[in-house]
Design goal:
Elements (H helix, E strand, L loop, with lengths): L6 H4 L6 H11 L7 E4 L2 H9 L3 E4 L3 H10 L12
Parallel strand pairs: 1-2
Length: 81
C-alpha cells in the first residue's frame, strides 16, 4: 500500500477514471501492476477500466484467494501453521 488519496483532493470519486489516474500520478503506479480491492463492484470495474487488476471484496478468505491467484505474496494467514 502506498498511502491514501482523498477524493476531495483528487477532485473525483470512485468509479470515475480521474481518481485512478490521480492515484497513478501521485503514487507512481503502473496500472497493470496495481491491484484495487473494494466492496463495491462498480468501483472495481472503474479500476479495471483503467487497466488495474481488481478484486471485488466479499470476505477476507475470498479476497486472499483472489490475491493469491494474482501471484501477490502475502504473509501467512492468522492461525496458519
Amino acid at each position: 500500500m502506498h498511502g491514501a488519496l482523498a477524493s476531495f483532493r483528487a477532485g473525483a470519486v470512485k468509479p470515475d477514471a480521474a481518481i485512478f489516474r490521480e492515484a497513478e500520478r501521485q503514487f507512481d503506479l503502473e496500472p497493470t501492476r496495481t491491484v484495487f480491492i473494494d466492496d463495491l463492484g462498480a468501483n472495481v470495474r472503474g479500476a479495471e477500466a483503467c487497466g488495474w487488476r481488481g478484486i471485488h471484496h466479499i470476505d477476507a478468505v475470498t479476497t486472499r484467494a483472489a490475491l493469491c491467484r494474482l501471484d501477490v505474496r502475502l504473509p501467512a494467514s492468522p492461525g496458519a501453521r
